[in-house]
Design a protein that fits this description.
67% helix, mainly alpha, 3 domains
């Protein structure tokens, strides 16, 4: 009797496994595509969350049957990009799926899909970040208006469930604009003229910018908004290099309010005493410093056991250090983690210190 019961149970389990393993039909996959296409724009955060549950179910099905799903999504996304009124939801989900599970040949199509998403579309902010962060690796500046609309003018955070934390709105902006390198910095410098987002832009420039933005920040020292004023001073101090220092040393503003004076005077006194960073004494062999810089670049800016002080104290030429650290910073923007953001701050501090070095 026990043997018979065991056989029945085994047969039942085998049947269930067979059902679970049964491939999805083309009609099943197509129905998910159609469902995503027909999703209306979410009116609020609750609706976004409800749609996310349905979208995650579609993702599980597509992920389980990638061999069939990828060609289907590739074909349907190519059609959607050319549609007169494409579905922003489908553009987002299909494009991001292809960036995760597709191959390199899918990247241009995913970028086209991102470009077809209209600024202001009501979409899941974290998912939109994931797509834009992936396709921004191509540095297509036509993506920047969408990033402005969805992230500079809105507050979006990225949950990191495995770490039990999240990346806040300021961090997401840094990671997005930073991927564009010098083009992202130029774009933000132009955005500084927009009072509605000037604070956000300054916060991002602090981590993605440098002396090239000093001229754009300079007029903000006259702002009546002390939050704008203090941000501008911080940028010139921490990212502006010698050019920013010179601006702060010669800055004159008789009508600066008491809180501004209290903030600025100690900074000016500190800058007046600040010497040029001396060239390193070669305490660590150049070959070892270069090895550490190679490791930083290969790890996308993860410092690990690398001692930042060793880089500053090295005897490497200033231009070489500037070029290497700039590349390391740009690679760091590819890592969507809070650790990456902290390490970008470290690299920025090194860059600004090197700017003060002699040759």
């Amino acid at each position: 009797m026990k043997q018979r019961l065991a056989a029945i149970l085994l047969a039942g389990v085998t049947a269930l496994c067979a059902v679970a393993a049964a491939p999805a039909s083309a009609q099943d996959l197509a129905s998910y595509v159609d469902k995503i296409r027909r999703m209306p724009a979410a009116a609020n955060a609750a609706e976004v969350g409800a749609q996310r549950v349905e979208l995650n179910a579609a993702w599980r099905t597509f992920g389980n049957y990638r061999e069939d799903s990828i060609p289907l999504l590739r074909r349907e996304l190519a059609l959607e990009v050319r549609a007169a009124r494409p579905s922003p939801q489908f553009l987002l989900e299909a494009a991001y799926f292809l960036t995760v599970y597709g191959d390199d040949s899918d990247k241009p199509l995913a970028a086209q899909a991102a470009l077809a998403i209209p600024p202001g579309a009501a979409l899941d902010g974290p998912q939109l970040f994931r797509l834009l962060h992936a396709v921004a690796a191509g540095k297509d500046v036509r993506l920047l208006p969408l990033i402005d609309s969805a992230f500079l003018r809105a507050s979006v955070a990225l949950p990191l469930p495995q770490q039990g934390s999240q990346i806040d709105d300021a961090g997401l902006r840094v990671l997005l604009y930073g991927r564009f390198g010098a083009a992202g910095e130029r774009h933000l410098a132009a955005v500084l003229r927009d009072e509605s987002v000037v604070k956000q832009a300054l916060d991002v420039l602090l981590l993605v910018g440098g002396p090239d933005s000093v001229a754009g920040v300079l007029p903000l020292l006259q702002s009546a908004d002390m939050e704008v004023f203090t941000r501008a001073v911080n940028f010139l101090l921490r990212a502006g290099g010698p050019e920013g220092r010179q601006v702060l040393l010669t800055f004159k503003r008789p009508e600066l309010p008491p809180e501004g004076v209290e903030f600025f005077v100690p900074i000016r006194e500190q800058l007046a005493r600040q010497p040029v960073t001396p060239r390193g004494q070669g305490a660590i062999p150049d070959a070892e410093v270069r090895r550490q810089l190679d490791a930083l670049e290969a790890s996308d800016g993860s410092y690990g056991d690398t001692n930042p002080a060793a880089i500053i104290q090295s005897n490497l030429p200033k231009q070489e250090l500037m070029e290497r650290l700039t590349r390391i910073r740009e690679r760091s923007f590819a890592r969507a983690t809070n650790e990456a953001l902290a390490e970008i701050e470290t690299t920025n501090a090194l860059l600004n210190a090197v700017r003060y070095r002699d040759q």
